[in-house]
Structures are given as C-alpha cells and as structure tokens.
Design brief:
This protein is α+β, with helices and mostly antiparallel strands and about 500 residues long. The chain has 10 helices and 4 strands; from the N terminus they run H-H-H-E-H-E-H-H-H-H-E-E-H-H. The chain has a single domain, classed as Outer membrane efflux proteins (OEP), CATH 1.20.1600.10. It is about 60% helix and about 10% strand. The chain is elongated, with a radius of gyration of 40 Å.
C-alpha cells in the first residue's frame, strides 16, 4: 500500500470528530435531605459501613461462609461470566473505530507450449498431464507467479455513529460490573441472614429443650406428691399436657434449623453435607451501630442504582447512534500489492499495484426503518429512566425500612429481656410456694407458660435485630462505592 493511501485513511480518521444526538444528563429526582426513621440505639457511636461489614458481628463462622461463597458461589460465577461477555461485546463494538486490514498471498501456476507431432485427440488431451503422454515429442514452459496484497477499509465516523456504538457497549460492560456488585451484596447478605436465622432456630431449640427439662422435673415432683397424697391426678395430668406441648415444638424447630443450613449450602455453593455450624449463640455476637449518611449518598453507595444509571447511559448512546445513522456514511478502501516471478523476490522490486476508492452512501427511502428504530430507542430510554427513578426510590425506602426496624427491634429486645427477668422471678417465687405447698397447679402452669413464651419471644426478637442489621448493611450498599465520574457525571 502506498503512502498516499495510508495518509488518506489516517486523515479520514482524524476528521471523524463530530457527534450528534442528545448528551446524557442524570435525571432530576426529588431526594430528601434526611431520613425520617428514628435513629437506632448508640447512633452517636455509629461508623460508616465497611466493605467487610460481616466482620462487625464478630462471628468467625459467618466470615468463613462468606469467604467460601466468594470462591464457590454459582451466582457470583455467573455474574463474573457476564462481565467477560460484556467486555468482549465492547471490544467487538469498538472494532470499526480503526481501519480493517487484510492481507493475502497467492501462487499462480501456468504451463504453455506445443507438441511436435500428434497421435490424435487423445495425445492432445494427455499432453496436459505430465507423465501421461503417449510419447510424442513436445515442448512446454512452466510459469509460477507469486502475489502479495494488503487492503484496508474504513468507514469515516464523521457523525460519531461507531463511537456511540462503542460507548453504548462500554457502558453496558460497566453496568455488568455493577450487576456483579449487586449479586455479591445479595449473596453475602443472604448468607448472613440465613446464618442468623439458623442460629436463632438453634437458640430456640436450646430454650425448648431447657423448658422441656424443667417441665419434666416439675412433672416428676407432682408425680411424687401424687404418690404421697399431696397432689391429685388433675395436677399431674395438666403438667403432662404442658410437657407434651413443649415436646411437640421441638421437631418443628429442628426442621426449620436444618432447612436454613441447607439454604446456606446453596448460597455458598457447596453440597449440604459440607455445611456444619458450630455451637455459637446470637447472644455472644456483636451488633455495632451503623451510620446512615444523607439520602443523596445512596446514589453512590448502591450498585443496583449505579447499574440502572449505567443502563440508562448505554441507551442514551444508542439513541445518539441512531440519530447519526440518518447522516451520510463515507467508506474508504485502499489496497496495494506486488507480483513477482520468484518467491524470494516478493519483497523486492516487481510489478506494483495500488488503489484507493471511496463511496458516499445516503438513505433516500427506507419506509420508516430508521425513524422507527430511533423512536424505539427513545422509548427504551424513557423506560430505563423510569427504572432508574424506581431504583433510587427503592434504595431510599430500603434504608428507611431498615433503620425503622433496627430501632424498634432494639427497643423491643430491651423490653422483652425485662419481661423474661420478671417472669423468671415469678417462677422462682412459685417454686418456693410449691415447696411449701401453698400454691395451686394453675398458678404454676401459668407462670411456667409465661416464662417459656417470653424466652422464646426474646430469642425471636434477637434474630429480628440481626436481620434488621443485615438489611441495613444491604440498604446502605454494603460498603460499595461508585467509581470516580468524569466531568459530565458519566460513570466511566
């Protein structure tokens, strides 16, 4: 290819600097200046959410499960594969930004000559094939020609159509990374929630077994009194009914615990047989206060919100691409090559050839194809703008809900712990009166039932507090942060 052809292609690329269509601007949304939810207990000592928020619970077993999920979670692996696909799609979309260059190397063989005598048409035919001639005298000349050709083609991107297509694909690739962040946050918080529910069911199992043991001990005492005549059969029967009720609660709690362990295995990406939980209790774990900054920060903290905006940016570039498609397109083609009789001389002097061609194309009539395509792209943009607004509203709602739940659950746990303490004190008094023979069975049963119910409720409220804390971590983005933006506010 000669220098003129190359220079023409480079000049065309330099001229391709125009851009048509609407620039992207983030949709204006009405975002409040502060949350209305009550602040949880200890808010004065609250700290921002860290990317390793699960360490705040001081539960090494939970940390181990999340580390396992980072390596084996099928959801995370699928999200990572989608990132790879999006990156390659962006690479494909960006290929027209540079000229396409192809090369070819060919060999041509030709035999020419004449025969001194002929033995008929058969010999004339056989003369074309070496070694199959009938013996007549012939003279032939073999000629081999070698050719090397390089050609390049380029669509001059005057209106930015190809560049817009590349930026749309690039924004989609960015969105896929934000989607992976959402998948990871969902997976990690799902593991934490399921883990705390499993531990909660096991805590309730321990309470149920302890209650059953206490009820059995009391039943034994009444049976002993029945033998000596200080209790009647109704007292024993009523206590037996209470024991049967406590015993019936255990299989359901055990089943719920095991189902949570199975759910954990799915989230982590391991067979259920590989998941076993140690003897930890929720009461031994920490619940540090979390700082919820101003609502506007949710735009930078939530990967799902960032994903919705990246999708919107990508579609905006598609709209620009469709607008540019209304303008003429200029295609340049250049080729050059050399022909030689000797392969060793292919890079040396020979028969040289070069060409440069250009074509300008403009659609005159397409029966509404381009205008329909543009209208569809604009409609899709409006849909994604609505999705983005919904994602922001959902994020704000999630934070408000989690803050409210965390605040009221903390209050309820304090009140329920006080109720348990008072019920335990009442039962201690009843036991003392029972030993003195001054209390009836109904009072004993009611006091027992009150304490056991309060203990079970306290365990459930404690689980709810941990779940609310996980929900708050998730609502605040789990320590995720939006990458730096450019001057136009674009995400990449």
């Amino acid at each position: 290819m000669n220098r003129r052809a190359v220079s023409s292609l480079l000049l065309a690329g330099a001229l391709a600097g125009c851009s048509v269509g609407p620039d992207y601007h983030r949709p204006r949304l009405d975002i409040p200046t502060a949350y209305t939810a009550p602040k949880p207990t200890g808010s004065d000592e609250a700290a921002p959410v860290k990317s390793t928020w699960w360490l705040d619970f001081q539960a090494p077993e939970l940390t181990q499960l999340i580390v396992l999920a980072a390596r084996a979670s099928p959801d995370l692996a699928a999200a990572t594969a989608r990132v790879v696909q999006a990156d390659q799609a962006a690479r494909v979309a960006g290929s027209p930004l540079l000229p396409g260059v192809t090369g070819s190397l060919s060999q041509n063989y030709q035999r020419t000559g004449s025969a001194a005598s002929s033995t008929g048409s058969l010999n004339q035919l056989l003369a074309q094939f070496p070694g199959l001639q009938s013996g007549s005298n012939s003279h032939y000349t073999d000629t081999r020609t070698y050719s090397a050709t390089i050609s390049a083609s380029y669509e001059v991107d005057f209106w930015g159509k190809n560049r817009d297509a590349y930026r749309a694909a690039e924004a989609a690739a960015t969105a896929s990374r934000f989607d992976r962040g959402t998948v990871w946050l969902t997976t990690a918080t799902g593991i934490a929630s399921t883990y705390f529910q499993a531990i909660g069911y096991r805590d309730r199992l321990v309470i149920a077994h302890n209650n059953l043991k206490s009820a059995l001990d009391l039943l034994g005492a009444y049976q002993a009194r029945l033998e000596v005549g200080t209790a009647n059969a109704l007292d024993v029967s009523q206590q037996e009914a209470l024991v049967a009720g406590y015993r019936a609660q255990i299989p359901s709690l055990d089943s719920s615990y095991r189902q949570q362990v199975i759910a954990l295995s799915i989230l982590v990406g391991l067979p259920p047989e590989k998941i076993t939980l140690g003897p930890g209790k929720l009461v031994d774990m920490a619940l540090p206060p979390v700082e919820a900054s101003v609502p506007a920060s949710v735009l930078r903290q939530r990967p799902d919100v960032a994903y919705a905006e990246a999708e919107l940016i990508s579609q905006n570039q598609t709209v620009k691409q469709d607008v540019a498609d209304f303008f003429p397109s200029l295609q340049l083609t250049a080729s050059g090559g050399v022909t030689s009789l000797a392969l060793s001389m292919i890079t040396g002097p020979g028969s040289l050839a070069a060409s440069l061609a250009s074509s300008l194309t403009q659609t005159i009539f397409d029966n509404g194809l381009k205008s329909g395509t543009l209208g569809e792209a604009k409609g899709r943009y409006q849909e994604l703008a609505a999705d983005y607004a919904k994602a922001v509203l959902q994020a704000l709602s999630d934070v408000e809900t989690a803050l409210t739940q965390a605040s009221f659950d903390a209050t309820q746990e304090t009140l329920e712990a006080d109720a348990v303490a008072k019920a335990q004190h009442s039962l201690d008094i009843v036991h003392a009166q029972m030993a003195a023979g001054t209390v009836d069975i109904t009072t004993v049963l009611n006091t027992e039932t009150t304490l056991f119910n309060d203990q079970d409720t306290l365990a459930q409220v404690r689980v709810a507090r941990f779940l609310a804390q996980v929900s708050l971590y998730k609502a605040l983005g789990g320590g995720w942060q939006l990458p730096p933006q450019d001057k136009k506010g674009v995400l990449f």
